[in-house]
């Protein structure tokens, strides 16, 4: 289920994240990213029109791989999964969301910031996790620490990752890709 998507994410290395904005602003950002040859993007559900705008973008650009981010509950995950986006991302991790994602074969990337949360992901057979908020939770030092304990886990750091520090993150052998609003 996840292997092809994650191969593509690994090849792109940088996932642009589109945060808050009006429908027009989000569309303009997507157009700029496509012009820069990005094929995978994340649109966060942080504005009132984000879901509707994401659906429109999905229809207009059917070859674009779109992930929905900032999913904070199982109810929200159930609702947005009806629209068949390519992947779904949460800032945190909980059992109900993991159960729902697994039972519905969703490409779901839960967020973690502690070893206990990594272990919860492992219990649910997740080997790719979002490391959020990367900079506020130790950044590269934490990733090095995680690598000592969890050698089979890969991370997608987001939060504080930007054009100036993304290459440092990408040098870590447990980093699959990075996400940022600065791309």
Can you put this structure into words, describing what you see?
It is a single chain. This protein is 42% helix and 18% strand. With 183 residues, it is α/β, with parallel strands linked by helices. The protein has 2 domains: 13-103, Aldolase class I (TIM Barrel), CATH 3.20.20; 110-178, no CATH class. The strands form 2 sheets. A 6-stranded parallel sheet has the order 5-4-3-2-1-9, sandwiched between helices. A 3-stranded parallel sheet has the order 6-7-8. It is globular, with a radius of gyration of 15 Å. The protein starts with a helix and ends with a strand. The mean pLDDT is 96.
Can you give me a brief rundown of this structure?
With 183 residues, the protein is an alpha/beta fold.
Topology, please?
Elements: H1 3-12, E1 14-18, H2 23-35, E2 40-44, H3 50-60, E3 65-69, H4 74-81, E4 87-89, H5 95-103, E5 108-109, E6 111-112, H6 115-123, E7 128-131, H7 139-149, E8 154-157, H8 166-170, E9 178-180
Parallel strand pairs: 1-2, 1-9, 2-3, 3-4, 4-5, 6-7, 7-8
């Amino acid at each position: 289920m996840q292997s092809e998507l994650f191969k593509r994410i690994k090849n792109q290395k940088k996932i642009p994240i589109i945060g808050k904005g009006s429908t027009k602003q989000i569309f303009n950002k997507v157009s700029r990213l496509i012009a820069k040859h990005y094929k995978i993007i994340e649109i966060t559900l942080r504005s009132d029109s984000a879901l509707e705008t994401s659906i429109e973008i999905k229809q207009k650009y059917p070859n674009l791989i779109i992930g929905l981010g900032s999913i904070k509950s199982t109810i929200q995950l159930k609702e947005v999964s009806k629209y068949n986006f390519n992947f779904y991302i949460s800032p945190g991790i909980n059992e109900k969301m993991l159960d729902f994602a697994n039972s519905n074969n969703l490409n779901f990337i839960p967020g973690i910031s502690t070893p206990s949360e990594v272990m919860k992901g492992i219990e649910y057979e997740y080997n790719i996790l979002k490391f959020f908020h990367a900079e506020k939770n130790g950044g590269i030092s934490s990733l090095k620490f995680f690598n000592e304990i969890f050698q089979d886990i890969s991370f997608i750091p987001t939060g504080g990752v930007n054009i100036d520090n993304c290459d440092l993150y990408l040098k870590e052998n447990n980093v699959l890709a990075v996400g940022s609003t600065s791309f």
